[in-house]
Structures are given as structure tokens and as C-alpha cells.
Amino acid sequence: MRAALPALVVLALFAVVPWLAEVWGGSYLTSLAMRAMILAIAALSLDLLIGHGGMVSFGHAAFVAIGAYTAGIAITEGVTDLATILAIATAIAAAFALVTGAISLRTSGVSFIMITLAFGQMVFFTLGALNEYGADDGLTLWERAEVLARNDVLYFAILGTLAVVWLLIDRITGSRFGRVLRAARQNDVRVETLGYGVFGFRLTAYVLAGVIAALAGVLLANQAEFVSPAIASWQRSGDLIIIVVLGGMGSRSGAILGALAFVGLEEGLSTLTHDWRLIFGPLLIAIVLYAKGGLSSLFERRS
Amino acid sequence: MSTTLLLIQLLNGLQLGVLLFLIAAGLTLVFGVMGFINLAHGVQYMIGAYLVVWFYGLTGHFMIALVLAMAVALALGLLLEAFVFSRLYDRDHLDQVLATFGVILFVNQGVKVLWGPTPLTIPAPEILAGTFQLTENLQYPVWRIAIIAIGAAVALLLWFLVTRTRLGMLVRAGASNAEMVGALGVNIRRLFMVVFGFGAMLAGFAGAIAAPIYSVEPGMGDDLLITAFVVIAIGGIGSIRGAFIAALLVGLVDTLGRSAVTDILKLFLEPSAANQIGPALASMAVYVLMAAVLFFRPAGLFPARGAA
């Protein structure tokens, strides 16, 4: 329970942001909160792979982009029904994860990092070649999916999705499935010997993570009202890994804390100086070198 | 596609391959010997390019600028190694990816602050600035041919160093089993430092000789670095020979792919569809190649680790 508390606090904080925004920050604050929540959803799914499965995917942003582009293209073509968009996005992401996962999971370690990066780059270049949909320049959405048209509905839809995904991942990682995944992370030969098909467990996790990331992508397209191939760039995959590690891998609150801290740092430092990366880069190095366990370990150590 | 165009593309492909090799050589040794993923290796390439432009502005001589740029790139590489990277050798790959990502963010921004975001250019050294009459109606910049020649020379030198010297023997031994080499009484930390410094200098050198043909801008090393990773994944981590063959392969596939894929597709598809799919497929070609190699041979074409 204690480990989940920080996440619950942050979720509660997100829930009151719309009212806070009326006093201070306005739509700037709400859009910032929405960005953090969407990143948190994607990071939660990546943490299932990295934190629990030991699968360091360097192409996770591709799934976010699949979701975002599905929404972007569907809406451009006049399909604004959210259920339809979600169904298509989920199906494409699941199919892509199934195929690329089945190939990637034949490798491990560094090769896995490289091959997921390769698939991410393939998505990146494919999106840049969609000439009818803006190619490299991206695609502006002139409206949102029907039910998300109102700002407050969009906000709470994102918050609700985050809460549900968080609970879902929490359930999954606490289940037998999660335990097998973590055991295989430590020693896959032993787990295999015990009679569990490690490959199947990992592939299931990979597909699930891909689908959740695509969900984040659908929300992202509606929130930003703009999609571009940059969503799939390897730097964005790097951002997601940063969030997971910053928050604390494989912890119950890590991804949500990490996303909040990431967006907070980015915004905070960029108001400080235009060249905020000069601070963020060394900060990242310092975090890796000196703060093992991430933010969530600050809360867990006392229990 | 005419033969003239094909010849130009072949040369361009070789030239890209040579640059990739200069970057990948350091990357694959650092990776092979120390098990260290250095995303910031592309930064060395960018620094090399900026330094040569800067020193050229100060001295007016390309060759002097080149030597100074390599010296400073080496010094910066060793500084980074001493203060950041040496603490990461014992960490897992995830930590290494993150910390070196931090270095990229810092240096890219730092370069932007120092030299501004607009791309810089520099002329090729005068004696090699002209064009070369390849055939009757085909001219090709001498500098690009010089790059190919320089790259081939460096590859030969590396081959000699790695296979014919004591240091090279230690590096090969380190790539196949670093712990054992340490146990046999070799100062492995110093070996790491030498390998790292050498790799950083090579990447800086690549950036410096590439400066006259590409635009020098912040982040210029990032995409090339990813391609260099593709090279070492295909070639086999820790293998100089693998890096050389894979670099030429990737350079040729990428360059020829860009001009040929659309034409090939036109044989099967409507021209409009081919024009749409072609460029995307061409950009992807090297990644498809890497995925295929990793699928069939996860350790790459010429794996160094565990090899006799």
C-alpha cells in the first residue's frame, strides 16, 4: 500500500488541477497536466517491459505514434467515433507488436535494444513518407474525436485512462503472470525449466505494452491536435526510458512520478533558461550515477 | 538508372560507408572491450566537425585545423571518459544509455550556445578542392574521393594495429574476454582509456573530414550514430573487420537504395504509388537489413566475443 501512495497522491493532484487552473495557470496548466498524464500512461506500459520484464525497448515511442497517427488519419478522413478509432489503433498496435515482438524477442540484451530501435526507426520513416498526411511536417487535426470535443471531458478521459491503466498494470504485475515475467528477468533458463514458456509470457507483455502505448497515442493526438513523425523518433523513446528510470523501474508509483518530474523539470528549467538542456543533461547523468532506484525509492525506503 | 548515375551513387555509398566505419570502429571497440554502450559517440563526430570549422577560421589552414581538431577531440573524449564514462562500465546497459543520452543533450545544446543553431560550412582544402574527371561527361569532387582513400588507409592502419601489435592483441583479447585479460595482469582500466581515446579521436576525425561536404549543425552526429549502431550490430560487436564490411554494406545499401528502390518499385507498382512508398522503403532499408541479420545471427556477421 505504502508503495502505491505516491501514485495515488499524484492522481488526486491531477484530479484537482482543473480547479487549480481556474485560479492559476489556466489552460497552460491543464495542458501541461494532460501531457504529463499521457506520458505517464506510455511510461507505465514501458515499465512493464523494462522494470518487470527486463526488456529494454528503445522503440516504444513507435507505438505511441501508431496510436496518434491512427487518430490523426481517422479524424482527417472524417471518422470521429472514438470507439472505432480505439478499435483500429488497438488492432494495428497489437499486430505490429506481435510481429516485431516475435522477431525482437529472439534476441536479448544489447541486440534487443538495437532491434527495437530498428523497428522504431522503420515506423518513423514510414510516417514521414505519408504524403497525403503531411509527411515530415505532420498533420494538424481540425477537430477531436466526437466524445472528447469538450476540454473538461478530454481532461478527465485522460485522467480516467491513466487511473485504469495504472490499476491494470498493478494487477498484472502482482499476478502470477507478473511473477513469471520478473523471474524470467532474473534467470530465464530456470523459469523455462520450471515449465513456463518464457517467450510466450514476454511476447504477451510486449503486445500489451504496445497496445497501452497506442492508447496514450490516441489521447496525445486529441490533446495536441497535431501529429508528426517526431512522435516516433528515437529521442522520444529515450524520453520514455528516462521517465521510467527517473521514477524507479518496476515500482508501483515510478512511472507516474517519473512523468510528473520529467514534465516538471522540462517546464521548470525552460522557464529558467532557454538552454535548459545544459542543465537537464548533467542532471540526468547525476541521477543515473547517484540516485539508484529513482524517485519512488525515496518513499519506499522508510517502510 | 544510367551507368554514370550508378557510378556516382557507388562512390557516394563508399564515401558514406567510410565515414560510418570511422565512427563505428571506435564504437565497436568500446562496446566490445568494455561492454559499454556509448550513445554520446556521435557527439565526438559533431565536435570534430565544429572544431575543424573553428580552427580553420582561426588559422586559415585546413590541415592545421584538422590536427588541432583531432587533438582537442581526443582531449574531450578522455575528459568525458575520466569523469563520466569510467563510472558506468560496471553498470547495466540501461544506465549507460541514459547517462550518455544526458551527455548528448548537454553537448548538442552547448554547441548551439557556442556556435549558434545555423549550419556552418567550410571549404575543402585547396589542393583537393576541385573535381575529378571520372569519365568523359562525369565529374566528381576530389575531396569525396580523398575521404574514401583516407578511410581505406585508416582501415588498413587499424587492421595492422589490431592484428600485428601487442596493443592490438590486448584489444582483441579484451573484446573476447576482458576479465580474463585483467586477471592475467594487464591494466584493464588503462587499456579501456586508450581504446576509448582512440575511438573518440577517430570519430572526431570523421567529423572533421566530413565537415566540407555536410552542413555542420547541432545534432548532426545523432542520426549518423544510430546508423553506426546498425553497422556494429550487423558487423558483430567488437569486430573491426565486421565493422568495416558492415559499414561499406550499409553505406552502399543506404545510398543505392535511395536512388534505386523507387525505380525498382515502378516495375511492379503504379508510378505514383512507387514514388510514395519508395523513399520510405529506402530510408528503412538499412534497418530491415539489421533486423534480418540479428534475426538469423543475433551476434552479427563477425562476432568477436567467444571467437577463437
Q: How many beta-strand elements of chain A? A: 2
Instruction: Please indicate the percent range of residues of chain B in DSSP E strands (runs of 2 or more).
Output: under 5%
As for the CATH topology of chain B, it is ABC transporter involved in vitamin B12 uptake, BtuC
Order of helices and strands of chain B: HHHHEEHHHHHH
Strand content of chain A: under 5%
Overall average residue pLDDT of chain A: 92
Helix content of chain A: over 70%
For the biggest sheet of chain A, the summary is: 2 strands, antiparallel
Please, what is the average pLDDT of chain B?
A: 87
Describe the structure.
The complex is a heterodimer of chains A (303) and B (308). Chain A has 303 residues and is an all-alpha fold. Chain A has a domain at 24-235. Helices cover 74% and strands 1% of the residues of chain A. Chain A has a two-stranded antiparallel ribbon with strand order 1-2. Chain B contains ten helices and two strands. Chain B has a two-stranded antiparallel sheet with strand order 1-2. In chain B, helix 1 packs parallel to helix 6 (166-183), helix 2 packs across helix 7 and helix 8 crosses helix 10 (271-296). Chain B starts with a helix and ends in a 12-residue tail after the last helix. The mean pLDDT of chain B is 87. The chains are: A mainly alpha (303), B mainly alpha (308). Chains A and B meet through helix 5, helix 10 and helix 12 of A and helix 4, helix 8 and helix 10 of B.
